[in-house]
Amino acid sequence: MRRLLLIVLGVLLVGYLLTGVTQIRSDERAVVRRFGKVVAQPGPGLWVGLPWGIDRVDRVRVDQVRRVSVGYQPEADEPGGATPPGQLLTGDHNLVNIQIVIDYAVRPEQLDDFIIHADQADTLVARAAEAALAEWVAGRSVDDVLLTGKVVLRRYLVEQTQRRVEPYGLGVRVQAASVTHLMPPEEVRRDFDKVTRAQTGIETAIDNARRDAVARLRKAEAERTDTEQATDAYVKERLSAARTEAEAFLKRLEQYQRLREKNPHILVAIWWDEMGRLFERLNKNGRIDLLDNHLGPDGLDITLFAPQPRRK
């Protein structure tokens, strides 16, 4: 009997000592507290410490993203009831229903802080996000909130929620924020939808006008470029023709100067040669009539007779 009692006590002692052995998975970090004081923060693997009652090992998944929902709950919005959570007052004294979701994770370097406040982390993060949300909505008009909230609020909530939870020493990092519900109260939703459609139509018209203006500007720039290129080509062509004529004139002048030394009357011959070419072009274009065909035995006869009427 005594032997059996010793065996039982031995088994119990071994079992008690094994409570000091903890397996820490690869995605976990642990905090070991001995009589309430943090003595170690072991990583993945097998941790062997003192048994239960002396050491306490808290394991935390550091890669887990924790999520809290803040604000409006559609199922809590009962007609005639009290103001539901998440129904906030804008800067121009209108009501909006907003629900947001905050994602946060544990900071591995502040794991001991998170272990201490783990039970309060969700509540404190939610309160910080709710305060930041109320402050943002109160500083804007209802149109600004409803039209830009889903885009602007995400970054704002991440920054402001993180700033507000820092004094608590939670050991968490706010990673993301999203707006899951953003609408006016049910009583005015239809009117707001009309306003939204009208504003959308205005924005569409403005965008179309801007695109048309850009297209017209590009067309005008293309036409200007074509005109400039055509002008440059014309100028180059005229300059080239002027240079060619000048070079031809200088060559003829040089030729004339050489011929004048041999024949002082060469200028008269050149003049008559040019006049002959001119008369030939004028005659070809019908702008002059040479009188050679009017010469006869008695000299030049340019008398014109009217046609005689026929005799019956």
Structural overview:
- With 312 residues, the protein is of the alpha+beta class.
- Among the domains are: 46 residues, no CATH class; 119 residues, Band 7 domain (Tetrahydropterin Synthase, Chain A, 2-Layer Sandwich); 42 residues, no CATH class.
- Helix content is 51%, strand content 20%.
- It is built from 6 helices and 11 strands.
- Strands 6, 7, 8 and 9 form a 4-stranded antiparallel sheet that branches.
- Strand 10 and strand 11 form a beta hairpin.
- The longest helix has 74 residues.
- The N and C termini lie far apart (176 Å).
- 14% of the residues are buried.
Chain-averaged pLDDT: 80
Instruction: Estimate what percentage of residues fall within beta strands.
Output: 15-25%
**CATH second-level architecture of the domain at 66-184:** 2-Layer Sandwich
| Rg of Cα set | 51 Å
- General form: elongated
CATH C-level class of the domain at 66-184: Alpha Beta
- SSE order, as H and E? HEEEEEEEEHHHEHHEE
Number of helices: 6
What name does CATH use for the topology of the domain at 66-184? Answer: Tetrahydropterin Synthase, Chain A
Helix content: 40-55%
Give the key terms.
Tetrahydropterin Synthase, Chain A; three-stranded antiparallel β-sheet; alpha+beta; 312 residues; 11 strands; 6 helices; 20% strand; elongated; four-stranded antiparallel β-sheet
